[in-house]
Amino acid sequence: MLIKRPADIRSSEITDKKLYLNRREFIRAAGVTGVAAAAGAIGAEALVEAKGAAHGRKLANIKKSPLSVSNEKINSWEDITSYNNYYEFGTDKDGPEQYARDFKTQPWKVSIEGECAKKGVMDLEDVLKGETLEERVYRHRCVEAWSMVIPWAGFPLSNLIKRCEPTSKAKYIEFTTAYDQRQMIGVRVPVLNWPYKEGLRMDEAMHPLTILVAGLYDEVLPNQDGAPLRLAVPWKYGFKHIKSIVKVKFVEKQPLNTWQEQASNEYGFYANVNPSVDHPRWSQATERRIGEFFRRKTLLFNGYGDQVASLYAGMDLRKNY
Amino acid sequence: MPIRILKILIFVAALGPVAWLIRAGLTGNLSANPLSDITNETGVWTLRFVCVTLSITPLRRLTGWNALIRFRRMTGLFAFFYGTLHFLTYVIVDRFAGLDFPHGIVAWTTVVNLAKSVSEDIYKRPFITVGFATWCTMLPLAVTSTAGWIRRLGGRRWSRLHRLVYATGVLGVLHYWWLVKADVRRPLTYGFIVAVLLASRVYWSRLRSVSPAAAPRAAKSSVRL
């Protein structure tokens, strides 16, 4: 397969400095001057609490990847670990940070099932054995029209797939998230049909951009971001990036992913980022990059079109949303 | 405690949410997406003040404490205040921030494009349509909340107009309901509260029509809503 370098953002697409207004920094700067005087009186310092995950174990020997985006500001550790959609730990964005703190990710097992030769239960250590973690800085676009730039550390899903030796009947892969009523407060409420499931077509799963993620920045992946093992498919909406994977099943028929099951008129199987196919309740034409005030134009396939558009040649992307 | 002092206390308390939002924003204590937080919080506080306003008449009937009515204009106006903040936040954060600025930000095209963007969005997205309709139901009530307008309209007509607040409650809940992705517990809670508050009015009006003498005196003696 021809692996093209990701299209760098043309300078004309970079938001003009004058327009660019980093709202949080602006607000903070204003806060320093404006509020400092009053802060002592109202105790503003007391309000400032540590946000985001505590820093965990460092990962060694992470390789840089040519598939990373360049020229884009990477979101902070705090942003990436304090603003999460992980409904197993509550439907509020700050829920996962709070409730996933004590989630046990060791020992961890991944069950390999379905149309493949190497069925069985693998320890996480075996899944990771022999893999070199690469830093992949990817744009991450949520279906709710916000986005971040995230430095994942992971390895190609295709490596694991090859080791499982799928049969010719394996046309799709179905992934399943952990389900534990004791540890995950979110699953005690039937908000979604637990356990969470996602799927990829085999060619999507084999694509070099598709990775299994075990780290963030140069550290072990924090629980709220889907530890110990999650998926990253950067040209698809965030809900495709299934977290805390416990099962990988090779199947012949297109699996039903959880959000499609929840509302098939709103969420499809493919869920490719596409500015011209609106979600029925909001536009997908623009997005807010976390940390910015002005909204950005959303790019087809989240800007990865050069690398992935060929996967969908001849398909009606309006129907296959 | 004299009503005047109570009113001042409630006024200050009702400014609490916006004061908290400003403070949390300035100290970096909102989430990584503070603009979304401001939108959500102002919206939820609108709904809360609508519920408080709708609960005054039932509470008055239950407790017989008629002085409660004297707080209703204020809570109603605070609902409008938070609703207007919510609407303005949406206009700025959701619409203005997504515009192109071919002639710079300070330009006539910005005004035209913003008006176009807002009106197209209200037309296009049902939950925005409903949200805007909710705000529209509060507008005439806020305008006619003065003693002068009560006199000009006459108590009866004024009362009838102000029943629009029932629509505010129902539409506000619907707006919230259509917004959430899967977890409808919060909209459901507000829906339940509004339903109980509206049902209590149906109950009392039936009671009155069946046996006028049995109706509590409080309900007959003053403007009811």
Question: How would you describe the overall organization of this protein?
Answer:
The complex is a heterodimer of chains A (321) and B (225). With 321 residues, chain A is α+β, with helices and mostly antiparallel strands. Chain A has a single domain, classed as Oxidoreductase, molybdopterin-binding domain (Sulfite Oxidase, Chain A, domain 2, Alpha-Beta Complex), CATH 3.90.420. Chain A contains nine helices and 13 strands. In chain A, strands 1, 4, 5, 8, 9, 10, 12 and 13 form an eight-stranded mixed beta sheet that branches. A five-stranded mixed beta sheet of chain A has the order 3-2-11-6-7. The longest helix of chain A has 20 residues, at 23-42. The relative contact order of chain A is 0.17. Chain B has 225 residues and is mainly α. In chain B, 77% of the residues lie in helices and 0% in strands. Chain B contains eleven helices and no strands. In chain B, helix 3 packs antiparallel against helix 9 (164-179) and helix 3 packs parallel to helix 10 (185-210). Chain B is globular.
Compact overview of the structure:
Chain A is of the alpha+beta class and 321 residues long. Chain A contains nine helices and 13 strands. In chain A, the strands form two sheets. In chain A, strands 1, 4, 5, 8, 9, 10, 12 and 13 form an eight-stranded mixed beta sheet that branches.
Pick out its properties.
heterodimer; A: 321 residues; Sulfite Oxidase, Chain A, domain 2; eight-stranded mixed beta sheet; 9 helices; B: mainly alpha; disordered C terminus
